[in-house]
Amino acid sequence: MEEQANAVGVAFVEHYYHLFDHDRAALVSLYNPTSMLTFEGQRIQGYDHISEKINQLPFDQCRHAISTVDVQPSAVAGGVVVFVSGSLQLQGEEYSLRFSQMFHLIPTGEGGYFVQNDMFRLNYG
Amino acid sequence: MEEQANAVGVAFVEHYYHLFDHDRAALVSLYNPTSMLTFEGQRIQGYDHISEKINQLPFDQCRHAISTVDVQPSAVAGGVVVFVSGSLQLQGEEYSLRFSQMFHLIPTGEGGYFVQNDMFRLNYG
Q: How large is the ipTM?
């Protein structure tokens, strides 16, 4: 159970940040109408609003570099909790930004997963 | 639903870090046998092992200062996902350490909550 959750979480992280950096508009496919995103304290619900938020972020090209990925099975059957830390390099900026993000992934019932909970914070320090 | 979850999450955060800083041994009461803690990548399960880990951390006195608390209702009925960032000041150390931590809280059925998922990372940067 833990190994399976770990494989799901690690594969999700790779997929999510690859899409974010290369095909951001496609991220909408990972959310559903009940999904929640809290982005720097701003609460957004539903894949349409989440997609709008992600696509209107004030930068075009970026690169995520992942430092740590922690994964646990959740209390939902087949669910997975993922906790990520890393850095975000924006095009034209000298310094990268540290961030932390957590996801709660729920099985779709069709062999995939969607993001039920997503919380993102930049780490100032 | 969101407001109730938020109240639970904020109260939990206050309680958790107060206990951590003033009565660390009492933290065990917040976990149960299925609880999971991933501490700096180390995976620990069950309140007895989690308690052992927390009480054997290589510092005695510490102070957590919380910077941000984000809360969402989870996919579990009554469940709450909490995402915290802050800093940790160890006694005798000049600089504090930045950290991020997430909790998944599940209702006990008796009006309280226990921690099902707990993941902690120091943020180096």
A: 0.94
Q: List the domain range (segments joined by +) for residue A88.
A: 2-122
CA distance A125 to chain B (A): 7
Record the pTM. Answer: 0.95
Residue-wise DSSP of chain A = -HHHHHHHHHHHHHHHHHHHHH-GGGGGGGEEEEEEEEETTEEEESHHHHHHHHHTSS-S-EEEEEEEEEEEE-SSTT-EEEEEEEEEEETT-SS-EEEEEEEEEEE-SSS-EEEEEEEEEE---
* A&B contacts, CB < 8 Å: 96
Looking at chain B, which residue has its C-alpha nearest residue A3? B43
CATH number at residue A47: 3.10.450.50
pLDDT one-digit tens code per residue, A10-40: 999 999 999 999 999 999 999 999 999 999 9
Q: How many folded domains does chain A comprise?
A: 1
Which residues lie below 8 Å from residue A59, measured CB to CB, with a gap of 6+?
Answer: A90, A91
| pLDDT (tens digit per residue) in B59-115 | 889 999 999 999 999 988 899 999 999 999 998 888 899 999 999 999 998 889 999
Cβ separation of A75 and B104 shorter than 8 Å?
A: yes
B68/A121 touch (CB, cutoff 8 Å), yes or no:
yes
Chain A residues within 8 A (CB-CB) of chain B?
2, 36, 38, 41, 43, 67-68, 70-76, 79, 81, 83, 85, 87, 98, 100, 102, 104, 106, 116-117, 119, 121, 123-125
